[in-house]
Amino acid sequence: MKPVVLLGFWGSPFGQRCKIALAEKGVEYEYREENIWGNKSPLLLESNPVYKKIPVLIHDGKPVCESRIIIQYIDEVWPHRAPLLPADPYARAQARFWADFVDKKFHDCGTRLWQLNGDAQAAAKEELIENLELLEGELGDKKYFGGDAFGFVDIALVPFVSWFYTFENCAGFSIEETAPKVVAWGKRCMERESVANALSDPHKIYETVGAAVLLDFWVSPFGQRCRIALAEKGVEYEYREENVVGHKSPLLLESNPVYKKVPVFIHDGKPLCESLIIVQYIDEVWPHRAPLLPADPYARAQARFWADFIDKKLKGEGHAAAKEEFIGILKLLEGELGDKKYFAGDAFGFVDIALVPFVSWFYTYETCAGFSVEEVAPKLVAWGKRCMERESVAKTLSDPHKVYEFVGALKKIYGVE
């Protein structure tokens, strides 16, 4: 290990601050890219046991965490080139204040801008514009925030220049119209080699911020719910197959520490667990295409009731239920469906997504218990066939014979006859 090591992540504005500061000082260092959404390195977990986040600067084997603290440390350890904080105590305090403002106000509302929708996003947009105007006023006609010298506040703010494109596209406004002096300042900063070499491609950031990952297992009806919902919404995501009967990945265990089960949906680095919760989240985050829950509160409550019934009966008691009890469950679902196309009427929605993955299991139920689902619930079987005409369902559901083979193999593993 070199005397100076920086643990970072390519898109992190906080890690980029440290890169810029080290470059301004001419400090050689070893850079180590961390997988912040996956398996964090033992070195990161050991070096930052409190937050377990990047960036971490390791100098002579001693870790320093939090980007603004790291920059001040760099300035104090290598004081003889390119001072980053002014010499005057009051000016230093002002610089710390504005850097703190960038973290508490600018970064916070910028994050909400691309994570939220609707009224919440509109509120974040207005707050971001106010913050830009405040920064514009503080910059004034100066070359940099500290005057003629590039320094602490510039380093704190400039990595967010790469995010301007994302903010504008998410909220539909022009930062240059709002804060032309800040935009001009950003262009001046980009002329510095330390900045140009550290900042990320704005388009790459925009492509990444909506990144979604689904941890799943091929035959899981609960993971299939999530896949169908994502397909209905047209959301692109990365699928990661988990070995649920073997060695579960560290990412799964970290993302779902309570149940340690699939599915887990990771959106913008934040994990969500339990399939019905995930499907509702997907519906709320991407509301503009194929609504999965009805608009009427009572109809929504009814949809949640029947989805909960499916979980409690088919997921829970249903696995161990006697044949007659299981037939009773099917008949209740048949009665709720009635003559409707889907459970909510003409629109494919929440209850359909909750139940349709079990269509792949009908063959297994029939073979194990010796009865015909179609004879017991013909409308339900016809509904399942209609659902299978949807691309989102047809591409997701498992082959019923493979499901049966899987169940047989599982029984052997656990010694069940």
UniProtKB/TrEMBL annotation:
It catalyses: RX + glutathione = an S-substituted glutathione + a halide anion + H(+). GO terms for biological process: glutathione metabolic process. Pfam families: GST_C (PF00043), GST_N (PF02798). Residues 2-82, 210-290 form the GST N-terminal domain. PROSITE patterns: GST_CTER (PS50405), GST_NTER (PS50404). GO terms for molecular function: glutathione transferase activity. Its EC number is 2.5.1.18. Residues 88-222, 296-406 form the GST C-terminal domain. GO terms for cellular component: cytoplasm. Keywords: Transferase. Conjugation of reduced glutathione to a wide number of exogenous and endogenous hydrophobic electrophiles. This is Probable glutathione S-transferase GSTU1.
